[in-house]
């Protein structure tokens, strides 16, 4: 039996809270934590009082970028179905589910509709048996309400969450920005912010009626948060997420046609950003994810409307999220619910806490280490971050997957 | 020469009076910098009218007009302006270029840069495209229109027309009417005219009005008859035919009824100046009798266009030409 004792750690667990002590791992599984006796044969890892927490579970990435995930303290990712080819075939799903192991566990989100076209149901059950942990609409919205209803009904039978993108397709067609002063000054095609709430309202009603599990991957506007808050109170099985970009930036970041700030959904105005922070604080938001989507110059060094939406977010996810703790929006244990426990629950995987019996997916981090985000210094496949030059605190020091350190 | 609307409190001379490498938009220009370009243009208006002895100050310089979007009038205006100044003018049309073969804008920019152009004039259908090129090349870049974003020389020629006809831009009530949402002419004019302290109103159906436009210090109207009240200048915008097939406006005749500048409407402001950036949809946004009438400054706008573009190219190449105080 191999034993590892993580001693002198500041343990952060979404369920048990924050404590100082030791974490015991046996054969890759967490066995005990707190004031435990360290057996003589255990390998000791002195955490130096630093933060030891569940490795992050990143719900919704668009590329497999090992170096970025390693640097970000991410041990599991849910892969969006918008790959080429689309994740709607069991062979491709199975391959995706296996290629990361053992260092990185990839949980494929298979396409809810064939080819993500929003018309015919995809083979959800077969894909699930091939390793898919959820079904999703990808980058797009299913415009046809009857198709979306059948997706939810069918996924409910499989007890599988439907991960949806919430932007009304008609309003958002061709838009690359949120309607407002910035888009008007730049002369960019824009959609009103309520494109999101419209889509959320429909999908919530369908989820309520069908009883399906719905996860809205990115919710970014005040009106949509209000709808979700109310739906949760009614008992609708809905969860929602956001990325740090929408918590830290408003649409002013796109000034000067900065394509690194071209995101989907687009950045919103300051009032919506404040609403997002409030929704993190009051528990409306369940998940913070990176939305990791590296794009090189060929798709970003273009006129804004022609550039691809998306940001490389994996490496900056933890540092930017720790800012929420420093700003006293939430506590550390709640942050790890957002970054690990809740995404694991949406995917139905046993991960994200330090409870006994969990796989030892662990991250050791220096929560205070200062550094500066730079497009040239990221290890990701591309450095398209809208946070270039921003000083942050919080560095991942070491990462373990199932008790095995990832170098 | 007309008196400028704005003057810096202390005299600025040489390159300090216009410290910009490019002209990518009116955004970022100070009021006195706009006035400086207008003052410079005045000189060329007179020179062009009197057929004065040729001034070939740009002789030996290469001007490339790279138009990724079709244009006749603006291209011609820039070409004439360059030739009057003695530049070697080369036109690159997107239709004939490798852009259609998938070459990226940056590659095209680097190609033009490697050919050692001395000034680039660029029109592109995407907002921000001209700035993108300007960041990548060594020579001055003039924006001849990018998407819905800016068309700075149009705003300058409009301001010059207004200043010459009305004596000043400051305090003039200017009504800009038409497809404001998709109009770079409107955006540049709003920036230039408000910088010069005009009272700017914009008028459009709500389907063609950009959100939060009042944040650009203009007053929005949806009723043209209200907007035109007390106007000193009525500037009509071209409405693309494809916007009037039910997408944004039910029909062209309905548009004319609500927003057309007819003789009856104009009769309510008998002293107002009528302007249009062209090309006009006669009988839709503007009636022929108005366009060709005594209040119209439309042909004068075209004339001012050449002068303004001569001024811009002269000013932007002064550093490269080693003009005293600019080098």
Task: Please give a quick description of this structure.
Chain A is of the alpha/beta class and 407 residues long. Chain A has helices at 66-72, 90-99, 124-129, 145-157, 169-172, 181-186, 194-210, 222-234, 244-248, 270-281, 297-300, 317-326, 332-347; strands at 3-13, 17-26, 29-34, 43-46, 51-54, 56-61, 74-79, 105-111, 134-136, 162-164, 177-178, 190-191, 214-216, 238-242, 287-288, 362-372, 391-401, 404-405.
Topology:
The complex is a heterodimer of chains A (407) and B (327).
Chain A lengths: L2 E11 L3 E10 L2 E6 L8 E4 L4 E4 L1 E6 L4 H7 L1 E6 L10 H10 L5 E7 L12 H6 L4 E3 L8 H13 L4 E3 L4 H4 L4 E2 L2 H6 L3 E2 L2 H17 L3 E3 L5 H13 L3 E5 L1 H5 L21 H12 L5 E2 L8 H4 L16 H10 L5 H16 L14 E11 L18 E11 L2 E2 L2
Parallel strand pairs in A: 1-4, 1-5, 6-7, 7-8, 8-9, 9-10, 10-13, 11-12, 13-14, 14-15
Antiparallel strand pairs in A: 1-2, 2-3, 5-16, 16-17, 17-18
Helix pairs in contact in A: 4-7, 7-8
Chain B lengths: L30 H20 L11 E6 L5 H12 L3 E6 L11 H10 L4 E6 L4 H6 L6 E6 L5 H15 L6 E5 L6 H12 L3 E5 L15 E3 L2 H4 L5 E4 L15 H8 L3 H4 L6 E3 L12 H4 L6 H24 L6
Helix pairs in contact in B: 1-5, 1-11, 2-11, 5-6, 5-11
InterPro entries (chain A): DHOase, DHOase/Allantoinase_Hydrolase, DHOase_cat, Metal-dep_hydrolase_composite, Metal_Hydrolase
Keywords (chain A): Pyrimidine biosynthesis
GO molecular function, one term (chain A): allantoinase activity
Total number of β-strand segments of chain A?
18
Beta strand % of chain B: 5-15%
Number of helices of chain B: 11
Structural class of chain B: alpha/beta
CATH architectural label of the largest domain in chain B: 3-Layer(aba) Sandwich
Q: Major sheet of chain B: order of its strands?
A: 7-6-5-8-9
Radius of gyration of chain B: 19 Å
Tell the overall outline of chain A. globular
How many individual β-strands of chain B?
9
